[in-house]
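User: Run a structure prediction on this.
Assistant: Running it now.
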Amino acid sequence: VGAHVEVIPGPANVVETLLQIGAATPTVAVTTKAGPVVTVRCSGTDAWGNTIVDGWSVVTTPNNLPVHTTGAAPTIAALKAGTWQLACRNSGTIDTSPASLTVTPAPPRHLFTLVEPSEIAAGNAAKLGCVATDVYGNTIPGFPFAMDYGPEVKIKGLYVSSTKSGIHTLKCVPETDKWSLYEIHAGNLHVRPGPPKTLLVGQVLDKPV
């Protein structure tokens, strides 16, 4: 009876990293809007040209991008905007020419109104700001805003004021789009009474003994 010898690959000598979204062709550079799952395709050989199948890990730079390794290949949920370098690693050998992943914000979804401080004395002013984000919380710069506010509020530049005590609601809204396309998060300005304008002093009569 003949003997069988199983030869397993030696330590990795050549390592390559490719990125893939869906059925697209794997490539060394991917740019995508936030949302899809990116598959990391790791491949490599040992010094004798044997293909390495198992034992892969992925190093990300910066290292704040979670990599899921429970499936057949490592995957990344591309939800956070930014740019990363990804390199496959095996047996201590790492790809010296990492793949590049660039994630840009998805379409705007949330519009936030920021009021700082949120409570002022009547006649004073608070700083006003508007922020647009996608569904994943990525900030979208340059979104065209308009302001929706009541007649008791005055806005000048980036500041809001009122002489009327109470709680005033302000909304950053889209300049031209339909409001229904977004989730609008209003801000409140709480105006408390200021110092008295006139102080009346009356005489208190002595009580008869």
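The chain has no helices and 17 strands.
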